[in-house]
Amino acid sequence: MISKLLESLYTKVFINIIVENLQTVVYIEICSSKRVEQSLHRSFETTSINAKMYEFINTYYKTSPFCYISILDKSSLQGAIPTCSASEMSKYCDINSSEYKCYSKDWAFYTSEYDLEAIKHDYKSIGVDFIFSPFAMLANFFKDKIDTTLSIFVLLEDNGISFTIFENTKLLYGEYLSMQRSKNSEDILIDSSLDDYDYEIEGIDLEEITIEDESSGFDDFTNIEDLDDGDGIDEFSESVEFEEEDKAEGSISDNGFNEDYQRFTLIQSALNTFYKDPKYKSQFIETIYVADGVGVSNDLKSYLEEEIFLSVFVRKIDLGVALCDMAKAEI
Fold this sequence. Notes:
By secondary structure, the protein is α/β, with parallel strands linked by helices. The chain has helices at about 1-10, 50-60, 85-90, 115-120, 135-140, 145, 220, 260-275, 300-310, 320-330; strands at about 10-20, 25-30, 35-45, 65-70, 80, 100, 110, 130, 150-155, 160-165, 170-180, 285-290, 310-315. The strands form 3 sheets. A 5-stranded mixed β-sheet has the order 3-2-1-4-8, sandwiched between helices. A 5-stranded mixed β-sheet has the order 11-10-9-12-13, sandwiched between helices. A 3-stranded antiparallel β-sheet has the order 5-7-6.
């Protein structure tokens, strides 16, 4: 009762962190009990928390005792598998070095234990409440399509692609595809100026809001219960239809080494694995739904249409907003 009263007196602050190849994007929402009071994006030229990013988060963190920090898992050693049975998981991944979570009774997503601990260590100065899987984000974003079709579903991030194939809610195949960068783009901007300091924000020990059970593994990863029913997730409006975009004019560019072509080759390779690997019950796929979190050009759509003859549907996704929606569902 007292807790509910306190919640009604304060706004809730949701701080959401997306780590890209050369920068970090922080999306913040400040919410009252009835509506979003304020929202904003801020980008920082670093791939770990630095002094400027800390100050920015601190400014909003100290405005309310009900503040929640979320981060999108960036591990290259993550994926999704078409089973939720621990005895069957070893056919698809090394579960001895991974943490996994069942999304429904039929499939699960997993990630590297080491990378989870690295995230918690890197952000220990502010604490992290939720580490969410991009595969959970993808399944939530395309829930109405996943429930009714046989299609490829992909989530495009700056660093990689979450690739899945679903048939009427059942996962047939899942893989995380890492983008390969040139040496020039790998000069990651890291500011370790916080390493020698222990921070407290206005008398609040930020370590107190981190996950209490350090040994709980995957519950630290997403802190999400079985999401089969999708309760609490604000799906995009059913009135929004996916319309097939106009085909890009002209032929495919001769510049086959751009990022969109690399995304195409990764998707093509994953699809070939699905068709050829006997572990998977392959079926012919005609359609792909793309959640575009990076702003790809029409080249990617052209490659997919002209090279592997897929019907392509693209919809923009704001990764920070989608991450925030998942945190709200948890709270």
